[in-house]
Each structure stands twice: as C-alpha cells, then as structure tokens.
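hey can u run this one w/ zinc ion bound, need the structure tokens asap thx
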Amino acid sequence: MFKNIKNIDKIVYGTGSFDQLDDIIGPKREENNNYFVFLVDDFFEGKDLEKRIPAKKDDVVKFIFTGKDEPKTGQIDKLKDEILNAKGLPSGVVGIGGGSIMDIAKSLSVMFTQEGSSTLYQGLNLAKNPGIYHVGVPTISGTGAECSTTAVLTGPEKKLGIKCEYTPFDQIILDPELTLTVPANQWFYTGMDCYIHCVESSTGRLYNTFSKAYGDTAMDLCRDVFLGENSGQSPENAEKLMVASLFGGLSLSYSEVGVCHALSYGLSYVFGTRHGFANCIAFNVLEDYYPDAVIEFREMVHKHQIDLPTNLSKDWTEEQITRMAEISYALSHMWDHALGSDWKEKLTLDMIRKLFRRM
Ligand code: NAD
Ligand code: ZN
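ok here u go:
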C-alpha cells in the first residue's frame, strides 16, 4: 500500500506575509459561531507582533507559555473545554509560534469536534469527525510541524501524535521575519531538528525519490545556514531555514524518522527534554548509525559555539534509562525504517540502554 498523503491546502511565503492573515481568514468568519481563536506563543505578548494580530471584537487571543513542557493532552482538553463552554465552536484556530504552538493548534482544531479526551485520539486515524479550519504561522524554523500530518502530544501513558487527515493545516503563512528573534541556542537546536530529519529520512528503507527531492534541497539549505560562508542568523538565512523546515517535513511525509528520534522521544518523555535539544543530545552519540552526518553535526556545533552537554547519564538511574529504552523500543515504525523490517533481530533493549548511557 502506498501512503495517500494529506498535505497543507494553502501556503503563503515571504517576508512580511504575516499581514495577509486578516484577508485570508476573513471569508471563514462566516463559519460556526463567527469568531476565531488565536493561540500565540507568549514570547510575543507585548511585542510588536501582538499589535499585528488581526483579532476582532469577538475573537479569543490566548498567549501560551511554551518555555518548559512540550504540549500535553491535559492542556488540549482544558483549552477545548474552556473555549467551547465560553463561546461554542469557533470558525477557526490560528497558531502563531514554534513547533509547540503548531501542535497545539493542530490538535485543538481536531479535538473541538471529537468526543472525550485527546488521549483517545493519540495514534493513527482515530479521529471520527473533521476538525475545524486551522492556520499555522511558524515563528521558529526546523520542526516541520507546519506541514506534518502529526500533532505530537505527551499524555499520561505516551508521547504520540494525533495523526489523521484532519490534522494538517488548511493554511500556513511562512513569514521568515517572525523567526529573527529566536535566541541563538534555540535557533540551533530547532534548526538541527530539520537537519536530522533530512539525515534520517534518507537513511532507511522507506527512502525514495519523492523524499530525496525535498530532503536534498532541505539539506543543502541547512548546510548553507549552518556551515556556509555566511552562516548564522540573518534575514537571508531565516528565509532559507524556513523553506528547509518545510521541505524537511515534506521529505518525511513520504519517509520516516529514525534512531535519533526514537531515542529523543525517550528523553522527552522521561525528563521533559525539549525536542530539538533532545535530538542534539541523542544525535551526538550516534556515530555508529550515522557516521558522516554526526561528524558534520559536530562541525556545526563547534562553528556556532553551542555548548552541548555530555555525560548527562551519570545522573540517571537504571530505572530511568530502562524506561527511556522501553519508550524508544516501542517506536517500531522508526526502527523498522532505520534498521529494516527485521529490526528486532538487530536491536535489543540492552543496546538502546547502552546508547542512553553514552549521552
Ligand atoms: P517551541 O515551539 O517549543 O518553542 C521553544 C521556545 O522558543 C519557547 O520558549 C518559545 O517561547 C520560543 N519562541 C518561539 N518563537 C520565538 C521567536 N520568534 N522569537 C523568540 N522566541 C521564540 O520550539 P520548537 O523547537 O519549534 O518546537 C518543539 C515542539 O515541536 C516539540 O513539542 C515537538 O514535540 C514538536 N514537534 C512536532 C513535530 C510535528 O511533526 N508535529 C515535529 C517536530 C517537533
Ligand atoms: Zn523532529
């Protein structure tokens, strides 16, 4: 069976394009209870961008703190109840922020029209009803969450996405200017998520020409941004990294992530380590799996003077390491892609534990 991918319906790209948001959502205001919900990363509260949010009298603007935990099922359930109880079903949701806000906007738009808790919908094609109109405006580049079919949530039992055809955005607005304020470390870690997506997409059994075409372009752009003569944060590189993020995500849509993401999910689950940072910690010990890419990654770390922690495992208990290894091992689709369909013959829980001990 070949995957039948649901993609984003509409894309606007370009510096300053954020100001088209009002015109874009205008016609949708006729739907449901005639109001929009704006979910905005709280970094932007009181900043210039706040004044540019085209909120009307009846709209709801919620500033959301994303600085600590990744999005949680409980958080989505609470937002859904609060909003529905106060004003009924909105016309649409607009998410303005990094990968966390993208996932919150995507999952909320689906959950508005499902019964019960979001924990019931973590998995593939579990949503029963179409969600509501939703727009993504990314303000950090790298995760590919702006185009993926997944809204990653951490629940009481698992970190797993709501993944269905209603999840992808109806519209995204890619305005590179919005990413210029991202702090240097965060810029690097989230940017590396894109680099690692390209590496993992291209080193597994699901790799194909579709994934390669997007992945190669994204990889070239990442190399420019992180290793090129004019590397570093700049308006020009912001444009490049925003396209790289999108293309890295599209490359994955017809391939899969691999060993690094499997380990990184374990780290995020047990310690709440943020995705981009967790990926960097994990990738740094994966020379057995991705030898050339790990060398190149370390060059980038060095070039941008990122102080990537090592020897973290000295403070971890055996139970924590085992729990992370179990979470990783359970991500069979990633191992299947990275190591082959006979991955269970090649990989043991103990091997995964050893990788965690290297971190
Ligand atoms: P993030 O959204 O978690 O934000 C990180 C920090 O950057 C926050 O403190 C935020 O306030 C700040 N920030 C955001 N935009 C800013 C800006 N323009 N200027 C200054 N600060 C800004 O970071 P992220 O790395 O983009 O996203 C990580 C999340 O994405 C994780 O929850 C992960 O699970 C998810 N993710 C999802 C997918 C997917 O396909 N759905 C893929 C990869 C990652
Ligand atoms: Zn990722």
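The domain at 10-179 is CATH 3.40.50.1970 (Rossmann fold). anyway lmk if its weird
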